[in-house]
Every structure is written in structure tokens, then in C-alpha cells.
Amino acid sequence: MAQTIIMTKAMPLGDMVFIIVAFLLLMAILKKVAYGPLTKVLDQRADKINKDLDEALQKSQEAASLVDQRVKELAESKDQASQLIATAKKSAKEQSESMIQAANTQVTGMRQSAEEDAAQMKDDAMNTAKKDVADLSVQIASKLIQKELSADDQRALIDAYLAELGQQ
What we know:
By secondary structure, this protein is mainly α. The chain is built from two helices and no strands. This is ATP synthase subunit b.
């Protein structure tokens, strides 16, 4: 192993001043030529990154706001749909009840009409029967008595007879 001996000599003051001035001049040139544009580019890059981060945060907040808005609108739509279904069910029930009521009213009217028709037919049949019985009685009586009664007298006689039968 070889040992290196470092020798230190005192540098003359002129050389030292020259080295310091050259170093300072080199630093000024580097600052002007390299460090200035480099820091400028780095600052622009940092500003762009900050701007992009701010925009990303803003867009994230907008997206969250839109999600909340959509969730609210969806809930409102569900509520409206539920209300619409409830209204439709209620309307259908009311229409059904109304139709049943109308049918019941119609059936009641038809029943009353049928009862009235039956009563009228019964009365017509009784009147026809009375008339037929009266005519028959008159024919029988005139043949038996050989005497002709007027039709009004005969009807009065038959009505009295039928009224007497009705009381018994």
C-alpha cells in the first residue's frame, strides 16, 4: 500500500481571489442560465399540479353533489310512484264500489218493476177472469132463466158475488 502524502501549500492571495471570483461568476451564470429556468419550470409544474388537484377536488365535490341530487330525485320518484299506485288503487276501488252500487240499484229497480208487472198482470188476470165469469154467468143464467139481463146489471151482480166470496 502506497501512502499518499498530501501536501498543503499555502495559496497565494491572488489565486485565492481569482478562484473565489470565478466561483461566484460561475454561480451567477448557472443561476441565470440553469437554476432560473429550472426553478421557473418546477414552479410552473407545481402550479399545474396544484391546479389539477383543485379541479379534481372540485369535480369530485360536483360528482358527490350530483349523486346526492340523483338519490333525492330517485326517492321523490319512488314516493310519487307509490302515491300514484295508491291513488289508482283507491280510484279502482271507488269505481268498483260505484259499479256495484249501480248494479244493485238496477237490480232493485228491475225487481220492483217485475213485482209491479206481476201485480199488474195479476190484476189484469183477475179483471179478465171476472169479466169471463160474468159473461159465462150471464150466458148460463139467461139460458136457465131465459131472460136477458143487461150487461151492467150482470156485472154488478157478479161483482157483488165475488166481493162476498172474497170476504169469506
